[in-house]
Amino acid sequence: MAANTNIFTEKQTNNWFKAYIALNWTKEGLTDFVVTELINVQKTVGSSCGQCFIQNLIPCPTQDVCKKRKRTNCSFHNSLQYKSCQTCTKVKQNITSLHRFNKPSWANTKAERWAIDPWEIGKCYLPRDGYSSVSSVQASDFNGVISIMLNCTHFQTCVSTACLSPPPPDKQCPLEKVRQIGRDVRHTANCKVTDADLQYFFLTLSTLLSDSVCLVHDPSATKARRKLSDLQNDRISLDDLGKLVIEANQILTQAKRFSEEAERTLKEGLDALEDKIQAGEQSIENKTQESINRIKQAANEKELDEYDRGIAGERLRA
Ligand SMILES: [Zn+2]
Ligand SMILES: [Zn+2]
């Protein structure tokens, strides 16, 4: 049974919501591909000894990694000292030479696990901040997955040339444009996306998911592409809609864009919904509607709140 994906009254808020969901699904669609290719990267860089920690492989101090302070220990190196290990130094060099900008994020990675966990190598290609505790490609976010594809030059061999030309960091690079979509949607000031932008997002994400070198043959990517097309055309099952509403809860809670009160209202409404779905409750449609109303209410409250603050701000400036 199909359900209406238009959860919010405001068209552009619905668009934003769809864009956010589209990004999550795109990330899911890319996950298997990135997992597989990181295994190939691991083979390429060779085996580490398994005994060295990243702190052992980096002299103290090293620019962009750590600073030595007078009298106190370096917070990165702590009690671990630099030591010579030819095996691991070679792997570390290989990781560096596969980095597009020769700047792996060393603080992210656990070198003692390089030989057993390709993800620990993948983490070297993530942005420097915010990913050290992320435990897998699956647990990573959209930005993380795209960053690995952009920063690790191994991916040049498994996506089409068109996807990476002009090469990053050129803003015209198609994969850079994909990353920018993620940023625009995540850092939105008003949770709104125009119809034209939404169409552009769907087209760009679907194009990536059907890249002719590997992704076009990848079942997860194909599935994600189908889901995007269904989302774009409002062909979505009631069950999926329930999941979406729960996802919306998480998104809006994490986003911290809503007032605390609105956030609480959202959370209560959607938690209740989740319980009902898990209990196999038949009246999901009503419950969904109830939660939707709560989101709308919370969004209205937030808008009023912002409006009030805007007025207050103008008064202050005047
Ligand atoms: Zn070693
Ligand atoms: Zn240090």
Automatic annotation (TrEMBL):
It holds the Pfam family DUF4559. It comes from the Eukaryota. PANTHER family: RGD1565685 PROTEIN. This is Uncharacterized protein.
